[in-house]
Amino acid sequence: MKPQTLYEKLWESHLVRQQDDGTALIYIDRHLVHEVTSPQAFEGLKLAGRKPWRVSSIVATADHNTPTDHWDEGIKDPVSRTQVETLDANIREYGALTYFPFRDERQGIVHVIGPENGATLPGMTVVCGDSHTSTHGAFACLAHGIGTSEVEHVLATQCLLQKKSRTMLVRVDGEVGPGVTAKDIVLAIIGRIGTAGGTGFAIEFGGSAIRALSMEGRMTVCNMAIEAGARAGLVAVDDTTIDYLRGKPYAPSGDAWDKAVAYWRTLHSDAGAEFDKVVVLDASEIEPQVTWGTSPEMVAGVTGRVPNPASIDDPVKRDGVERALKYMGLSPDMPIGEIPVDQVFIGSCTNSRIEDLREAAKVARGRRKADSVKRVLVVPGSGLVKRQAEAEGLHEVFLAAGFEWREPGCSMCLAMNADRLEAGEHCASTSNRNFEGRQGAGGRTHLVSPAMAAAAAVEGRFVDVRNLL
Amino acid sequence: MNAFKLLDGLVAPLDRANVDTDAIIPKQFLKSIKRSGFGPNLFDEWRYLDHGEPGQDCSARPKNPDFVLNQPRYQGAQVLLTRDNFGCGSSREHAPWALEDFGIRVLIGPSFADIFFNNCFKNGLLPIVIPAETVDTLFRECVATEGYRLAIDLESQTITRPNGELVRFEVDAFRKECLLNGWDDIGLTLRHAEEIRAFEQKRRDMHPYYFA
Questions:
Q1: Out of A130, A245, A312, A324, which could bridge A318 as a Cys pair, Cβ 3.0 to 4.6 Å?
Q2: Residue A128, annotated as binding a ligand
Q3: Residue B87 in contact with residue B99, Cβ under 8 Å?
Q4: pLDDT by residue (tens digit) across A54-99?
């Protein structure tokens, strides 16, 4: 048999039917649902007199709109509250495998709660009306972000209309140095291939530096596959995957576990499998990364400089860099280390898991937020992450450093709730998008790892975290 | 869904790469539970000088005169010229909803982000990919000629330039069919309900732990 890539194995095992033009129906195992992209889908379903095909595939939570403080006061913004209550009502009416509503002890960011509850399992297809669904590919799942019409389509038919993607292998060989994390790896990858480099591809991340990552780290990498334009990121199953899932609430147990593990062990690209494109990075050359612009590909090492548009030939590109520098309030050739920081955000589906908080706490321990930094928000990814962090005393480290310790949610990653930047403020953020206005109108986002964010908080500017470890 | 067959429309040029869906429709407007009414807030942060919030009367807000869609010559535009990677970022379908509500029916560019591209077809919008050099030519002509229009024919997969020259484009056969007829793809998929059920049963037998 011809050697297959992991993507091809997952595609074939979910292929219900394929038309002559290549359009296929793919069976969906897990449907993650949140409040922002689902109301119109449920409404459409209702208007057409349809019912969900398989409610036991649905795992739902409220995360985008929920406040991260004063939970006893509920959701103050009436429009946000209506949206969250609409999800409550839809799940009440139609049902779900499980629902973690606002203030539930297991509520959290949809891409954190799926894996930590074992609702994301290797070999599944996972969809969600959220582009960062690529996160779940860390478990060798074929995981796609979809639009609301597709949410409705999956609710009604348990299938997604798809065309097969091309395959790309991004291999990160060697070992990263101390202080260099999964976030730096993925930002370096995006810096290399660009924000459209992965368009039309499913990216498998491999190589020794990826294999050495924890599941949390692999989720960070796959999470940002979409920032490289790829709808899906993938990492093959190995012991790290299996060990993470053992004993999780929705993971199988007993004989079913053994049977599942035997299958999951086959979820890797075969030796000799051919990819449409291969990109190789040397892990030892990756330094802590900081984005300076308004697209995740506008990134440099912490010891580097902001580019000079005068040295760029392509007019569209030059124009983009000029526009970004103007928006970000930066001058050409400015050292990254001279960019001041007004706010710090540690959280989001990219970097709000326990390991991320441990990395940040390691830097914050025994240090204080710089006086020039207005606010440092630490927002755990879920209620379970929060409790684990508190059991380890991490919250005390943050509070002693002058950071704020909040309730779980998407928070200032997209600023749909009250957590946001003021115009002109620079933010060291562990989230995934530095688009104009993403964290608040006029806000200036710099994407970094949790350790780099904590370092920026204590120094009031971007510094090389390797000097603080 | 509205069908799309033919359009002879006024063209507006949005000359920047990597336009993300946060820019197309900012997050505060995503709190709506409806599919309609997003047009006045399309490109909100670029289009207006003040900060927009849901429920405002946008006609009274100060407009940014430099933003291309505010210029008198582009009022009523139905075709938007775009650069690389238009629609990147968030999967929010509110982006095509806002474009459609504003009056845009066709987008022409060298590349689009995957999820956005897909979402367009579900809402009667036609995103057309043509080579970057041709897009450049259209940008130049559009800026140089007030009242610049293009005629788009989905059936024959052609764009007709004012000088009569044709630009051919590719479109997926299935998407084309759905768009031409305004078909609801859920209805189409449910024609294969038996096949889906059979597949599901087989999968359940083989991997029961995915169905727990």
A1: A312
A2: no
A3: no
A4: 999 999 999 999 999 999 999 999 999 999 999 999 999 999 999 9
